[in-house]
Every structure is written in C-alpha cells, then in structure tokens.
Amino acid sequence: MDGDIILRLKKVNGQIQGLMRMMEDKERCDKVIVQFQAAKAALDTTYSMVLQSSLHECMSRHDDENMDKILKLISKE
C-alpha cells in the first residue's frame, strides 16, 4: 500500500511541477484549470486511500485513541 501511495504522490508532484511551468509560460487559463482539476482529483484520491488505510489499521488494532484523533482531523475539513 505504501508503495502505491508514494507512486501516486510522485505523480501529483509531477502534475504540480507541470502546473508551475504552465504558469511561468503563461499558458491559456482553460489548460491551467484542467491541470489543476486533475492534480486536485489525484491528491483527493490519494488522501482517501491514506485515510481508509489508517482507519482500517486503527480498527484492526482496536486503537480508539488514534481513531478519535483521525476523526477529529476529518471533522476539521
């Protein structure tokens, strides 16, 4: 799982680097927005995977303290 997360984060990083180049090169607004949406979607998906994994791990260890911390973090969004 961690390897998949790292791979996804590297992909998002590449998308962000591409966005910075697009901004520096003054690309058309529509192209920039499409790339922002793609990067945001990729990061959201990765976040969901990490969240799900963390919750499953806490549940399997009956770790109520960390579960509560995660739930508090989520509720702040």
From TrEMBL:
Belongs to the FrmR/RcnR family. The lineage of its organism: Bacteria, Pseudomonadati, Chlorobiota, Chlorobiia, Chlorobiales. CDD domains: CsoR-like_DUF156 (cd10148). Pfam families: Trns_repr_metal. This is Metal-sensitive transcriptional regulator. GO terms for biological process: negative regulation of DNA-templated transcription. InterPro entries: Metal_Tscrpt_repr (IPR003735), Metal_Tscrpt_repr_sf (IPR038390). GO terms for molecular function: DNA binding; metal ion binding. PANTHER family: TRANSCRIPTIONAL REPRESSOR FRMR (PTHR33677:SF5), TRANSCRIPTIONAL REPRESSOR FRMR-RELATED (PTHR33677).
